Amino acid sequence: MKRFLTALGVLVLPAVLTLLAGCGGGAPESASGAAAPAADASAAIDKWIAGFQPSSQPAEEMRAEFQWFAQAAAPFRGMAIKSVAEGIKTHTWESEVLTKAFNEITGIEVTHDILGEGDVVDRIQTQIQTGRKLYDVYVNDADLIGTHLRLNSALNLTEYMAGEGKEVTNPHLDLPDFLNLEFGQDYEGNQLQLPDQQFANLYWFRYDWFNREDLKAEFKTKYGYDLGVPLNWEAYEDIAEFFTGREIDGQTVYGHMDYGKKSPSLGWRFTDAWLSIAGVGDGGLPNGIPVDEWGIRVENGVPVGASVTRGGEANGPAAVYALTKYVDWMKRYAPPFAASMEWAEAGPVPARGIIAQHIFQYTTWLSDDDFIAPGSPVVGADGKPLWRLAPTPHGKYWDEGMKIGYQDAGSWTILHKSVTGDERKAAWLWAQFCVSKSVCLKKFLVGKTPIRKSTVFSKYLEEQGDDYGGLLTFYKSPVEKMWTGSGPNVPHYPLLAEQWWQNIAPAVTGEVTPQQAMDNIAKAMDDLMGKMKLEKYSPVLNPEKPAQEWLDAPGSPKGERPDREPKTMAYEEIIKNWQ
């Protein structure tokens, strides 16, 4: 989720050359030269070993990890630091629970502010621009990795862990245990941001309705193929039509859900990889080589254009198709109030029991009680969800080898120019505590935003079975890597992303056509990139040439394609493929 209010100024970025290093180090020495004792924290450690049950770690390993934090923090006892994150359940729990545990174990007091995402990004931009410290550490989306690497704004954690921060780097951190470290890495593999939580956009559907024999028979008669998880947009559209306006359980239901209010969240709706789902871009991970899902052509890390006339695809047939389907489906198959909603309002709507399927469900909403609590319209009498998650169906321009969908990764980010010395060390300790193996399973149970393999493969969650509607199956699967963030190619995320919602909104209201809207976005991005002067990977736009020359060449941008035969697959077969 990228919530941006103002654009960052163009700063200078020095080269970053070191590779991801291992982490380690022991407890720092106290002023007297002796290892700082952990005995004073023993009661707190006992308390929180019990408080963080269930954990993926045995009690003795939790004790060792917490004792390390107590010892490493000894020189900083009595300090107070500030951090900030957006308002989702995961971060609220950190603010209410983890700050208390961290303080009792380490003696460091943390104020963990919870703000709207726009406010979070506004403050990080202000701190970068002015050099005035507002927070010691931010949970900032890894979608800004391209911005951070070009502005030299984020602390290079790889270098820090191996050097200045070695003594305060948790020997139990276990970087290979993270699900998607790559989201916060620059082109050289340096870790600039460390994941704190992540969630995907997946296909969500009413498993119980899709398995009703009467509905299955009626669908087969009408469309000539089986009702099941749609593999492509043609099938998704048929299913949307089939369910919209139908009476089920005494309610009028709809075959699709979305949102369309003119607001920054309308931009997230598209920059969170809607175009890649349609088929914008080339194959290759994480973001298409050489054209990514924003339609930006990037050569050796250098953006060279977004418009088709410069070899980009932001206004090509695939992008126009993506916007056209978005507008059409919302008008024809979503509830009439959807167009006036924004992200935060629309997310919980499927839990009302009136939505048959949602092609674009942010899984962070699945932590809401409405989706999982007994008595919910989407929870069965046995307490299990009536819904399931499945892979996102593809548009007609999608090709094998492309990314499949989007994942958001709110990531710990230290602004190194304004946070130094002991404050930096205390902030790094706090960030590591929040992502420690000892607490991550408990954090998942609250927010459903996993970041560790040890969490999703834990014995406790294995015993939970279907309680999460396929979410754990997704995160255990090898294809999880095909859902990625925005990646490092976007040279200035806040500035470029602003162009999306401002130009999509007129297409929603019918003031401009989808082609005009995408033309405007492509031109705005090219104009802005053409003015950027960055030290590293600065945009250098291709000269324009006739669009057809690019469309006729192999790869992206892609020429017009016909619709395909609709295809579905039984959910059980989908799960086998995931596994």
Describe the structure.
- With 579 residues, the chain is of the alpha+beta class.
- The strands form four sheets. Strands 1, 2, 3, 4, 10, 11, 12 and 13 form an eight-stranded mixed beta sheet that branches.
- It has 23 helices and 14 strands.
- Helix 1 crosses helix 2 (59-72), helix 10 (264-271) packs across helix 20 (493-509) and helix 20 (493-509) packs antiparallel against helix 21.
- Helix 3 (89-106) links the parallel strand 1 and strand 2 (109-115).
- The protein starts with 41 loop residues before the first helix and ends with a helix.
- The protein has helices at residues 42-51, 59-72, 89-106, 117-130, 145-151, 157-162, 207-210, 213-223, 233-243, 264-271, 274-278, 317-333, 343-346, 369-372, 421-434, 437-447, 453-456, 459-462, 471-476, 493-509, 514-531, 547-552, 571-578; strands spanning 80-86, 109-115, 137-141, 194-206, 229-230, 247-248, 251-252, 297-299, 302-305, 357-362, 387-390, 405-413, 483-484, 568-569.
Strand content: 5-15%
Count of helical stretches: 23
Mean pLDDT across all amino acids: 92
Low-confidence stretches: 1-38
Helix content: 25-40%
Derived from helix and strand composition plus strand pairing, the structural class reads alpha+beta
Largest sheet: 8 strands, mixed
Radius of gyration: 24 Å
Number of strands: 14
User: Given the C-alpha coordinates, what overall shape results?
Assistant: globular
Distance between the termini: 28 Å
Q: What is the multimeric organization of the chains shown?
A: single chain
